Input
Amino acid sequence: MDRQVQTNSRQRELFIKKSTRVAASYLNRVKSLPDLPDAAVPFLDALENTYIKLQDIAKPENVKTIGTLCVMVPAELICAAGAMPVRLCSGSYTAYSIGDDHIPRDACPLVKSIMGFAQIKALPVFDNCSLLITPITCDCKKKLAGVINSVKRTAAIHIPPLKKEDADTEVYVRELYRLIPVLEKETGHEITPGSLADAIRMVGRAQYEMSRFLQYRKYDPALLYGTQVMAIMNAYAYMPVNVWTEQMHLLNSELEARLKRKDFVGKQKQPRILVTGSPITFPNIKLPLLIEEMGGILAADETCMGERGLSDPVSVIEPSFDGMMRAIASRYTKPCTCPVFVDNRQRVFRLKQMIRDHKIQGVVYHVLRGCLVYDYEYQIMEEEMGKLDIPIIRVESDYNEEDVEQLRIRIEAFIELIKLKDHAKKKSERK
Amino acid sequence: MPNTLINEKASVFEKEITDALYTIEKYLAGYAEAAFFINTARKHFLSGFNCLKPDIIVLGSSIPAELVFATNKTVYWVLGGSRASSNWADDLVPRDTDPISRSSLGYLKSDFTKNALILVPLVNDSARKLAYLLRSMGRHVHTVYFPPVKNKESLAEWYRQYEDCRYAISSYFKKPFSNRALQRTRERIYQIKTHIRKFILASNGILCGACRMFIIGSYYYAEDPSEWCEHLDCLTKRLQNKSPVNMSKARRKVLLLGSPIYFPNYKVPFLIEEAGLEIALQADHTSLTICSSGCLAKKNRRITPYTFYINDSSPAYVKNDTLYEEIARLISENEIDGVVYHILKGQIEYDFELGRFEEMFEQEDIPIFRLETDYNYQDVEQLRIRLEAFSEVLNQRTYGKGVAV
Output
């Protein structure tokens, strides 16, 4: 028995050593990108506190944290219950290797990483959560909800795979109503119309600041690096909503000043790239880093840990409790471009819109190994991008560093291709 | 597509079916009553896709059969199972897609599906995306989903799905079907299931597992389920008059669990038999859908639209309690020496469920063997060696327990 305890504690020590080292190395690479805005530092600090210093979130003592495993879990409901939402989708390579022993080999790395943290119990943000809310979206998350329940108390919510009909949204509304007593019991706070309205306003302010921030992201040349943007958006998962919003407000002011000074970080001819596909979660930010280290600029992303997570506000038409609940349900399903929905043509429209708004020249389609739903949609995207004459590359990756050099070569070649294409286009325009 | 290529593709498919049928025919040589089932399969697969004019196509076995049979229209079930048809879909699906979805899409992209209503049960990620692909190809698709946690609310939601499906079928054919017709069909299907269970009991220890699987599976190829049932009865009577070959004493009995096995890909059951094991029970989702009466038999409830959902053991649920309970019942009622847990590459849900079953069988002291494969034949020799080793383990355990072999 003692031997087992010793082995476990040694494994935990090794885990901590390795995972903090990997997280620190990626965070340093983000920090080393030139011209990091001063106001962006607290976001990186939040990631450092979570993954390197292994601290819990800075929050009032009597506030509970509730973990969520997808953007389709409404933060508003959790806030209205007086708790703090923490998004626990992780990109930890070390947790992934622990999770690998508990989850089938072909499961996606994100799910393995979540399971790894649940098993090793070394990440306070994860361990201190009093409840996990798992939305049943893809096969892996569905089955994870059944498995993780043995190590962490879990509430599963069903996301209907269709969203066209009102009856489908109604299913989700019912699921949200079912979640209310669970949250109330957990936190000891009643969700009232007033608290819900306050929560909607609080998250709405974050969304407003996010929308301002996204406007600054559209500038060509870029005002800040896409990798920095990804880190800032990832930090939303580990910061109290109001703190993140205030900091975002400061960052937006700093970017506004930068814009006035024409203080750009990007160069005029830098290929502008959009990343779409499987989520990019800290510390697995090798793809944005590679794009920018190879001379491209990550001008936009269509991922759930990025722009998709905070892009649409809840629009309350009828200010009753039920009206607010329905508005929340609509916001979390209707505009969502996650491929777990049967009909996802919306994603094509969204991508086209982003390509136009952000002056995108190339698309990197990120597929995490085992993330079948995104892989299915690649062919449609390839066809659509072909019609727009936008180059697209499918990049399949895992939670390890073994494929970095191979990815580097492919990304480098892709960026070269965009440059040549751009050069040829300008030449023909001059003629 | 050039004609030569079409012919080449068709001949590969025909060869696959003919080869599998030949082996089955060899096993069933002494049973004239089995000819009907072989001919049914031959007609279903080999009459040429151009000759098929189905009104309704059902993907998989997760749609309540009464909804399609009550229409009196021509039904075509697409279960997958063919390596050749899975190759036809190679350019449409990602590399890691499971062979069943691949094979089903291979069938469905053929022209014979153009004018039919395709019913797609959304049991997994591939089914969702297949529905989307089929719609983009201009096919008429109706989807049915399964609330993933079975509770009171989900029953209401299932009822909505059921009624939506019924409405979709009625409006497609512009012919509504009454509650009475539906109830009659439900009861007829229940009767058929009773006959299937009788057949399973009678064939135990007489017919090999692959043959039993083939005969039960041919339910999905039959044009008239009642006629199919009559022939099954004839075969059952013949089997009831025959004494078991005592094959069971020489061979270790295994329960075949996990991903469903569909004709013509009988690689795994054939290998199990060749390794000296006997498939005493088969408990994949499709076999349970055809055979099991679940809670209905236990509590003598009336057959309702909810019956299917309550008894459904597909991996569409967060925790597949129905399957777990069914397996617990099967192992308490039958004596088995080991379990072969079959996983088709890409069917991650079954792999997730394995852990729970491992615990269950460990408590019962029954060895469980995970066998992962796809529709290719490259791994046959490797699988054979592994199965032979498993068979050896089971034999040794029996010696250890002091039972004469």
Remarks:
- Residues 244-400 of chain B form a domain with the Rossmann fold fold (CATH 3.40.50.11900).
- The beta strands of chain B are 56-59, 75-78, 117-122, 140-145, 252-258, 277-282, 338-344, 368-373.
